[in-house]
Structures are given as structure tokens and as C-alpha cells.
Amino acid sequence: MSRTGPRRTTEPGAGPGEIRVAVAGASGRMGRVALEAIEAAPDLVLAGAVARRFAEGTEGASSPLAAELVARGIPVYADLATCLKEASPAVLVEFTSAAVAPSNLRTALERGVVPVSGTTGLSSQELAAIAALTEERGVGAAVIPNFSLGAAVLAMLARRAAGYFGAAEIIEQHHDQKLDAPSGTALALARAVAGNLRRRAGKGPDQPAESLVAAGRDRGAGGPPPDPRGLSVDGVRVHSVRLSGLVAHHEIIFASEGETLALRHDSTSRSSFMPGLLLTVRHARALRGLVTSLEDILAMAGLTATSAG
Ligand SMILES: NC(=O)c1ccc[n+]([C@@H]2O[C@H](COP(=O)([O-])OP(=O)(O)OC[C@H]3O[C@@H](n4cnc5c(N)ncnc54)[C@H](OP(=O)(O)O)[C@@H]3O)[C@@H](O)[C@H]2O)c1
């Protein structure tokens, strides 16, 4: 038994219209903010938290945050399977690492729980395997690299702007504890604009995206040497900055003869990811297949740029 503290709700159900949600990676930077946002949402029930660091018998079990969770009646589990079995969530919010997220997603899907993951650095093969599992089971899952509404708007604007320019480069900046590089958001942004740029410039990609290093964890001794001009993703160069004090910042600079256009989005607080996360959680049970973009969730919610006016 790896649970710590009393159960918040004794029955597996939730009130009418309420959604039971568990959080994996609850001891992390994003997990902590997600716990608060879910607890504060009137239509969501925080069913449990998975955090090895806070589990019974570990040093972290006596940490102030672990004690606070227990005092608030939120059960803390050391492993996901036990959490899903005992806390009976309908949706799993997942902010861990690329090393464990694929297995967490599979565990959730196999137990009929819809995973909503923000973890970045998953390879295209890992995402394809998750997509196949959702198809096989006729259910949905979301793996979205950026839940901020502003970053979704940046992608929409950038895709539109790309048609008018021949070249673009992306500069992404994050805190120095981020494990993967380039960021999942920068990779998605590069791929989103590449097609339109190519049409304008009349040339093909200089490297197939699948051959690129998608995550820092893949960069071992046998990996490609770092390119001082940044990583080329479908012909769009991406430059990664890692410094303490930063949260998540993306800038795309378009260029044509004699002119440039820069579009930039800054997440200055992790609270910026919460409206998009909660929107995704609320639509999670209606998902079919794997969704990898917040734009798709906005469309489901009738909040596309067109409908927003
Ligand atoms: N989608 C978005 O909008 C968005 C925004 C920001 C960040 N992110 C991404 O979210 C992820 C988490 O970021 P973060 O800053 O919260 O990271 P973090 O502070 O390092 O937290 C990650 C948590 O995951 C758990 N974990 C890590 N490796 C694990 C493993 N092998 N097995 C089980 N649990 C493990 C750890 O908890 P325990 O050891 O206690 O279990 C840790 O507290 C990253 O991939 C990041 O890029 C996404």
C-alpha cells in the first residue's frame, strides 16, 4: 500500500457533472500548479496525486508540501497503477519526464482513464504507439507540449505569416532545469510553419523531421554533434537557451528580402498553462485518438480564432 493520508472522497463517483482527476508528477513544478488549479475548479474533483518523492516511507513524506496534501485530504501514491485503482479518476493529468510518460499514458489507457499529458520530449515513435493504442481501444488521449492559450495563438499567427516569407528561425528560451531541447513547442511551431514557407520559397525540407534529435535525452555520445546554427527542423532553424529565471519563451523571426517580422510569446508564470490544461481536462472524455495540439481542443470548445472573432 503506497497511499499516504486519508481519501478525500470515499466513493469512486463524483457529483453530477464533476470529473475526477488524478495528477502524476505532483511533486514537480508543473504538477504542483496543476494540483492547485484542479482543486480550485468547481467542476473537478482532485482524486489523488502520484509523487514518489512524497510517498510513505520516503524522506519527502515529511516535506511541507506532502504534509499539506495529506492535511487537505488528498491521497498521495508512490505508483500510478495503485492511484488509478484506488482513486478511480476519469482523467489523468501527467507532467513527468519523457522517460516515464509513455508508460504512464499506456497504464492510464489500459485502465480506461483518459490521459492528458503535458510532458515534452516524447519521440514520434512513442507518440505513434500511443495513437495506435487509442485507436485500438476507441478512446482518446492528449499529449500537448504547451497548454498556454498565448502559445496556441502564436502558432496560428505564425502559420498565417509563414505564407508571406521565405525563411524563419525560432529562438526558444526556458529555465535551466528543463530536460529536453529543443522544446516540444518549438518543434511543433517549426513544423507548423515549414510547409507554408516551403511553398513560398519553392524548395523542399533540408532534413526530414524524423531524423532530427527530438529530445535532449536522445543526445548521447553516439548522437549527432551540436550544430552552432541550431537544429534544423524541416528547414526551420531552432535555437535553445537555458537560463535560471526563465519560464517558457518562444520567438519566431520571419525574413524576406529587406524585411523581418518577429512574433513572440512569453509564459512568465506556470499559471499561464492552467486555462488550457483545464479546458483539455473538461473535453478529455470526448476525445478520440491522440490529440497533440491545444488548437484542436480550442476548436472542440468552439474557441477557434474564427469563432472568437
Ligand atoms: N505542456 C505544457 O504546457 C508544459 C509546460 C511546462 C512544462 N511542461 C513539461 O512538463 C514536464 C514536467 O515539467 P516540470 O517542470 O514539472 O518537471 P519537474 O519539476 O522535474 O517534475 C517532474 C515530476 O515528475 C516525476 N518524475 C520524473 N521522472 C520520473 C520517473 N522516471 N518516474 C516517475 N516519476 C517521475 C517527479 O516526481 P516524483 O519523483 O516525486 O515522482 C517530478 O517531480 C516536462 O516534460 C516539461 O517540459 C509542459
Model description:
Mean pLDDT is 87; it is low at 4-12 and 204-221. α4 (101-110) packs parallel to α5 and α8 crosses α9. This protein folds into 2 domains: 19-143 and 271-308, 3-Layer(aba) Sandwich (Rossmann fold); 149-268, Dihydrodipicolinate Reductase, domain 2. The strands form 2 sheets. It has a 7-stranded parallel beta sheet, sandwiched between helices. It has a 5-stranded mixed beta sheet with strand order 8-9-7-10-11, covered by helices on one side. It is α/β, with parallel strands linked by helices. The chain contains 10 helices and 12 strands. The relative contact order is 0.15. The structure holds NADP nicotinamide-adenine-dinucleotide phosphate (NAP).
Précis, in short:
The protein has 10 helices and 12 strands. The chain is α/β, with parallel strands linked by helices and 309 residues long.
Strand content: 15-25%
CATH architecture descriptor of the largest domain: 3-Layer(aba) Sandwich
Q: Major β-sheet, in short?
A: 7 strands, parallel
Residue windows where pLDDT falls under 50 for at least 5 positions: 4-12, 204-221
* Sheet/helix structural class: alpha/beta
Associated small molecules: NADP nicotinamide-adenine-dinucleotide phosphate
Element-level helix/strand string: EHEHEHEHEHEHEHEEEEHEHH
Q: End-to-end span in angstroms?
A: 52 Å
Number of strands: 12
CATH superfamily of the largest domain: NAD(P)-binding Rossmann-like Domain
Order of strands, main sheet, comes to 3-2-1-4-5-6-12
Query: How many domains comprise the coordinates?
Result: 2
Q: Averaging pLDDT over every residue, what do you get? A: 87
The level 1 CATH classification of the largest domain is Alpha Beta
Shape: globular
Question: Could you tell me the radius of gyration in angstroms?
Answer: 20 Å
DSSP helical segment count: 10
As for the CATH topology of the largest domain, it is Rossmann fold
**Into which percent range does the helicity of residues fall?**
25-40%
